[in-house]
Design brief:
This is MULE transposase domain-containing protein. With 109 residues, the protein is an alpha+beta fold. The chain is built from two helices and six strands. Strand 1 and strand 2 (19-25) form a beta hairpin.
């Protein structure tokens, strides 16, 4: 965060202090999406394996060369309505999406 000033990292723990969720939006990617990417956001989630079993939620944009542009990601305990709402609230605050008019959203569900 010292080198990338506008970075957002949010950790959420349960009542016992055990890791539950983590949201990351790197400042350089955030500014790049705002200044140069098309108004497009792709949403997806995938399973994680290993010590922290859960879901990886991601958002992808499209840059001026029609290439995929990573915007944000989060590691959550499960893919539920609650975790998607939490993820999208953080995304909206980071990208300053006061309303979603003019933005194309795509998802597999």
């Amino acid at each position: 965060m010292r080198m990338n000033h506008d970075t957002t990292i949010i950790l959420k723990c349960d009542d016992s202090g055990r890791f539950q969720r983590m949201y990351i939006c790197l400042g350089a990617l955030k500014q790049g999406w705002k200044q140069g990417c098309m108004p497009f956001i792709g949403l997806d989630g995938c399973f994680t394996k290993g010590y922290h079993i859960g879901q990886l939620l991601t958002t992808i944009g499209v840059d001026p060369n029609n290439q995929m542009y990573p915007v944000t990601y989060a590691l959550v305990e499960a893919e539920t309505k609650d975790t998607w709402v939490w993820f999208l609230e953080q995304l909206g605050a980071d990208l300053e999406l006061n309303n979603s008019f003019g933005i194309v959203w795509i998802s597999d569900k």
